[in-house]
Amino acid sequence: MCQQLYMEPSTKDDDFGEIEPKELRFVFEPEKQISCTVNLINKSDRYMAFKVKATTPKTYCVRPNVGIIQPHSTCQVHVKRQAENVVPSSDVIAKERFLFQRAFVYKVTPINDLSPIFRSIEGGKYINETKFKVALNFTKEINLETEEEDLKVRESQDIPKTDSDIDKLALSLKKAKKTISELMEQKINHLISKPRFFTRNISSEKVDMLEPLIQQ
């Protein structure tokens, strides 16, 4: 059976629904495969066949690249771009295009016979064609730079900047020093309160060395 017989009569004035978004936008990440999703919306009461073509098919993987959308339904097309080490130049991106072809078909149309439908057009039948550009964003890299800047700000906040901050730090150190001195004094007094232990373990010379500390 001729593939063109699967196509319903149509004109350019027919409602072929919508394609969203209006461009293929990717978020670039080095050495990672990036992707985006396109929604093909069929608002009619008819079955709609579609086919997706890329100007650089080796760069992109489109799934599904051909199919049938039921009446009042939406088909999601996932487009993946191969991983790259560096950001593609603007000249390269400017040359990349996608062509979305759509045509009304009969319900009994086999999936395997869809591709030949878009190769030629017979009288009284119409194929809707819409071209889309490619765009690259760098949102994630910008977020990383922002996070790094926030971290630097938080770290800098921990460093005393004013005389008041320095005074507070000095007071804390003075209190800590006083606490250590009091603990040492308590330890020495505890040893002195035990003559036998003190006499056996501490010579008179060492006692003379400890007396100035006790008197402070």
Automatic annotation (TrEMBL):
InterPro entries named in the record: Ig-like_fold, MSP_dom, PapD-like_sf, VAP
Domain MSP: 4-137
Pfam families in alphabetical order: Motile_Sperm (PF00635)
A GO CC term assigned to this protein in UniProt: plasma membrane
Gene Ontology biological process terms, A to Z: endoplasmic reticulum membrane organization; endoplasmic reticulum-plasma membrane tethering
Protein family (similarity comment): Belongs to the VAMP-associated protein (VAP) (TC 9.B.17) family.
Protein name: MSP domain-containing protein
